[in-house]
Write a sequence for this structure.
């Protein structure tokens, strides 16, 4: 696993790809290729953490991939380190030129930089690729500005992937990511009702910074962390209006045709297809029958893959 470090811990000198790279889609990969195929320094991805919009506007920003997941993805692309620059109000006040000199030149000793054509940096986002080009020329640094990649539906972007995911379009999400969307969670106790209605569920505690699909019932694969078997499963992601309409959304999976104790396990979940929305049923029997139908549909969906 590549190191995830602060600027002062980085291996120097560096060849830097700058950006959030959330989702690491094909457009991001083109930018990253510009630093992994050079001998100008340690291939390094540099991102801000937290996201500037979280610090400046108090927006909560959920991620397609968390820093801990990103390391493994970047490693496969030939990146050697992920540097997270702590974004705070001091950093937000740095002009583009100061940021360039203090962080990229002095701290990270960068010899080569790659960014996407829409990259902005420095106070009030004043630095664009043109400004960066001037700065790189005067410091004798190599620079690649990579054009924005498009497909028939438009620009490749993290927000487009996020939007597909929020709508529960897992196929479109997978196509855009170039890999299945996954998340992980620790199995924690629920209300203990699942077994009594014939459908025990592993309730998952998921890192609150991870973006999840929109609420609904899904067919999904479930794998134990470091396990080999992929279990077909049905997932309830959202409310449980029949038993507790006011409770916060749950993430729970029932592994099809399995009777296993999953307590304290970490599960990796790959949602595959949205089946339906949650409903309030007149009683637990009707809910249980519906979950039976969901399980059948999930089995069919997953057996075709
Ligand atoms: C596939 C699946 C679909 C579900 N759909 C609904 C639903 O539409 N409405 C609802 O009120 N609860 C739904 N549930 C949630 C159940 O109410 C919940 O699993 C059960 O009460 C057990 O909760 P517990 O694990 O906290 O004990 C669903 C659960 C599963 C596994
Ligand atoms: N097929 C299965 N899918 C999911 N969990 C299962 C399964 N079989 C047994 N279990 C166990 O049952 C527990 C869930 O039972 P349940 O009655 O729903 O209680 P809880 O409220 O803790 O979710 C899980 O934590 C798991 O250890």
């Amino acid at each position: 696993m590549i190191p995830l470090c602060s600027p002062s811990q980085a291996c120097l000198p560096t060849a830097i790809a700058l950006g959030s790279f959330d989702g690491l889609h094909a457009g991001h990969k083109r930018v990253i290729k510009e630093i992994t195929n050079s001998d100008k320094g340690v291939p390094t991805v540099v991102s801000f953490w937290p996201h500037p919009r979280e610090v400046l506007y108090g927006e909560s920003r959920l991620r397609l991939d968390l820093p801990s997941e990103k390391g493994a993805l970047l490693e496969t692309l030939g990146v050697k380190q992920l540097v997270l620059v702590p974004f705070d109000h001091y950093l937000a006040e740095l002009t583009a030129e100061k940021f360039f000199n203090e962080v990229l030149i002095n701290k990270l000793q960068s010899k080569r930089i790659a960014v996407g054509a829409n990259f902005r940096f420095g106070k009030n986002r004043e630095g664009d690729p043109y400004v960066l080009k001037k700065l790189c020329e005067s410091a004798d640094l190599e620079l690649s500005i990579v054009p924005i990649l498009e497909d028939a539906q438009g620009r490749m972007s993290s927000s487009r992937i996020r939007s597909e995911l929020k709508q529960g379009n897992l196929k479109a999400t997978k196509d855009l990511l170039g890999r299945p969307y996954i998340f992980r969670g620790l199995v924690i106790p629920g209300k203990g009702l699942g077994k009594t209605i014939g459908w025990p569920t592993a309730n998952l505690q998921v890192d609150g910074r991870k973006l999840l699909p929109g609420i609904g019932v899904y067919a999904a694969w479930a794998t134990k962390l470091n396990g080999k078997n992929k279990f077909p499963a049905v997932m309830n992601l959202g409310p449980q209006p029949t038993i507790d309409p006011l409770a916060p959304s749950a993430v729970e999976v029932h592994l099809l045709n399995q009777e296993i104790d999953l307590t304290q396990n970490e599960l990796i979940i790959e949602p595959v297809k949205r089946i339906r929305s949650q409903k309030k049923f007149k009683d637990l029997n009707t809910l249980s029958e519906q979950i039976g139908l969901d399980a059948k549909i999930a089995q069919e969906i997953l057996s075709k893959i």
In short: The mean pLDDT is 96.
